Amino acid sequence: MGDAFIRHIELLGYEKRFFPSQHYVYMFLVKWNDLSEKVVYRRFTEIYEFHKALKEMFPIESGDINIENRIIPHLPAPKWFDGQRSTQNRQGTLAEYCYTLVNLPHKISRCLHVVNFFKVRHDDMNPVTDSQIKKPEVFLLPKDSKKNPTDITGPIVLQTYRAIADYEKSSTSDMALKAGDMVDVVEKSENGWWFCQLKNKRGWVPAAYLEPLDGPDESEEQEPNYAGEAYVVQKSYTAVEEDELTLKEGDTIEVIHKLLDGWWVIRKDETTGYYPSMYLQKAGEVNTSVKSELRNRGAPPRRSTIRNVKSIHKQGRKQISQETYRRNSKKYIQNQRKLRGNSQNKANVIIEKNEPEDNKPKAQPAVPPRPSKDLILNRCTESTWRKIL
């Protein structure tokens, strides 16, 4: 009989364990080519390390050389603190990952790295426990979950971006980049800081240093809204560039264009300029500790301030000049004033036209002629015609 290989991997659910400390493991039913079936338990951190090693073994199939050749599925990085909710929500992603993994070409799906990872270990048969600690809790994946996709989350497909310039991290939570590095974006924050992963590194990166592989990403940016959305300044900022605005905490402004790099175009009275979005809060929203903590970070760099940009695109990003913002914003405000003025004038004209009609005396109904005596005698009752005789 030939070398052992895996026919099928099915995610059964997860288990909450309490020894040596509280953690979660996923349960997999592994079906082998000799028709045997074994249940194995793996932590998500183990699975992710296995995934990273697999990508390094097959750089072409993982898209490290050319992203178009990628066939190895994506897998999101572990969170800083994995709780029960994230463990449960990740089941759909893992189920899809295992299905894709087994159906890859044999040189990948049947390699020793895959086979050895899913082999039964001693801990799978006899998990380490402590009689004084409560027993593990098992959470099984519903059998009809495949029929009802709403029961589990779908696979998470991460977007791959390329760094257009070198970036030196400014804090421990940031991640340094070199021009040309390809990263998977895990989370896009509207404040201009994106959480990315690069091989075994993870951290925040300014969105201004990243661009997608297939072209400029203007499609992800909203069009300018010159009507404006009301926001309140939560942190003061002094303008550094000429096209930025200096505002104080508590100022009320209008946002007219939300840009991906975290620098939004805002309007204060009739003046427009750039301002860090992380220092703004939508009018009426409640302030939270998370938002307050984010404001302690420095504002991300703007795209226009990155020097020696090594972009892979011949086509530049579509840029709107600040003069265009001011002109269109002023035009919008003037049009609104004209519309309000016209509506008031129309209302006054209608009132003036109606006033003469209201002063005219209303027409009185015509008085019918008095009936003749013969008509009264023939048609009225005896009590009526006696009164007139």
From TrEMBL:
SUPFAM superfamilies: PX domain, SH3-domain. PROSITE patterns: PX, SH3. Residues 156-215, 226-285 form the SH3 domain. GO terms for cellular component: cytoplasm; NADPH oxidase complex. Residues 339-374 are annotated as: Disordered. It holds the Pfam family p47_phox_C. GO terms for biological process: respiratory burst; superoxide anion generation. InterPro entries: NADPH_Oxidase/PX-Domain, NCF1_C, NCF1_PBR/AIR, NCF1_SH3_1, NCF1_SH3_2, P47PHOX, PX_dom, PX_dom_sf. GO terms for molecular function: phosphatidylinositol binding; superoxide-generating NADPH oxidase activator activity. It is found in: Cytoplasm. Keywords: Cytoplasm, Phosphoprotein, Repeat, SH3 domain. The keyword Transmembrane helix does not apply. Residues 4-125 form the PX domain. Signal peptide: none annotated. Residues 352-361 have a biased composition (Basic and acidic residues). It comes from the Eukaryota. Its main location: cytoplasm. This is NCF1 factor. It comes from Setophaga kirtlandii. The gene is Ncf1.
